């Protein structure tokens, strides 16, 4: 395994006016890691992810994906990332399959149907494949968002609060699939409000509070250091 980190945030800052919503975050996520970024509403998780995805420009600092700078090399880094955004973004009149074909087309993958079928199967979407997006329930739409992020088999998978408002069954099947991808070598970066989720899935946790990384450690060390979950929550 190469020592180049999958993701590197280097003294990254994002200001809106005078206010820094991300305030000097430095963090390396190793290749193959399953990493959780934990933080309350407004901590800056989504802002950090959108700088990683090249959707928001940093005010200062650098972001790298597998050694490539996001600002200097946006197209190459986009290919390395599979980002599942918090909002559901899709064309309501496309079928599920068309949505995934369109996304494959963005990456120049014209013959991707075998992998699309595998994704549909893994995410329990096979019988919805020919339905229009607007006909699907919220949970089904979210599954499509996950499939969409994975059409190009990205080495680094980023999920921004994917289980917010999602029922238990979907939550479990989603985590099973993402864990499987992680075991196959994909790096996973997850943002969440839920400590239990981070604890169950991730080997390392970074805690973000008001734009700053206030704790960063292995899950076991973090939990034992803060003796009780209660104390950890106070940190948030
Ligand atoms: P949540 O869990 O609610 O999604 P978060 O940790 O993802 O929270 P962000 O969405 O990154 O937090 O927001 C961090 C802070 O930045 C918030 O206080 C938000 O109001 C502010 N913010 C985000 N985008 C903008 C913007 N375009 N202009 C001004 N302030 C913004």
UniProtKB/TrEMBL annotation:
Family, similarity comment: Belongs to the ABC transporter superfamily.
Name this protein carries in UniProt: Putative ABC-type Fe(3+) transport system,ATPase component
Highest taxon listed in the record's lineage: Bacteria
Keyword Transport appears in the UniProt entry: yes
Keywords: ATP-binding, Cell membrane, Membrane, Nodulation, Nucleotide-binding, Transport
Molecular function GO terms recorded: ATP binding; ATP hydrolysis activity
ABC transporter domain: residues covered: 7-235
